[in-house]
Amino acid sequence: MKKMELSVLMPFYNEEKQIPITIERMIPLLDELKMKYELILIDDGSVDQTWARIEDAKSAFPNKIRGLRLSRNFGKEAAICAGLDFADGHAVILMDGDLQHPPEYIPEMLRLWRDEGYDVVEGVKEDRGKESFFSKLNARIFYSLFRKVAGYDLSN
Predict the structure, then answer these.
(1) Which pTM was predicted?
(2) In the beta sheet, which residues pair with residue 91?
(3) Which of 69-73, 128-132, 134-138 has the highest mean pLDDT?
(4) How many other CB atoms are there within 10 angstroms of residue 133's CB atom?
(5) Which class for 81: exposed (0-12), middle (13-18), buried (19 or more C-beta within 10 A)?
(6) CA pair distance 37, 91, nearest whole angstrom
């Protein structure tokens, strides 16, 4: 099988209603890129019907969507690490499943990677919104470990 050019990772936790909304927005945008891609939807141990909605999406788009189901809720950072291991693309984009990260920036990010030769293209939120102390702590630990292991600082 030809290697994917792009993998888009999207973790979900108890977001069964968000899955169809995300698919409806992502598939047309990714199709416009005219490249081989996979949309990897990660269920981080949800207790609702998130996995069932991911299975529905896989059935509707079998050559475009892959699903990864974690046995329990390990947290967003662990779901991302599992997704990175599962991904098959030359380039990988990480996005929140609830579309907090606007997917409309994907074409420009890919242009910078392909045409300008950047190894890493990072989008930075202007406003992180309301996050709990534990969310902030988990993110800080994840980005610190990522920087040490991968050599890239994505902390902002």
Answers:
(1) 0.80
(2) 6
(3) 69-73
(4) 7
(5) middle
(6) 9
Residue type, 93: I
CB 65 within 8 A of CB 39: yes
Q: What is the CA radius of gyration of the chain?
A: 15
Partners of 12 in the beta sheet? 43
Beta-carbon contacts of 59 under 8 Å, excluding residues fewer than 6 positions away, are none
Least Cα distance to 102 among 1, 22, 17 occurs for 22
Q: Vertex 30, ends 156 and 87: CA angle to 5°?
A: 65
Distances from the Cα of 87 to the Cα of 6, 74, 75, 138, angstroms: 9, 18, 18, 23
Distance, in Å, from the CA atom of 87 to the CA atom of 66, rounded to the nearest integer, reads 9
pLDDT of 151 reads 77
Judging by DSSP bridges, how do beta strands 89-94 and 65-69 pair with one another?
unpaired
Q: Between the CA of residue 125 and those of 58, 72, 75, 114, what are the distances in Å? A: 30, 28, 20, 23
> Are residues 68 and 78 in contact, defined by beta-carbon separation less than 8 angstroms?
no
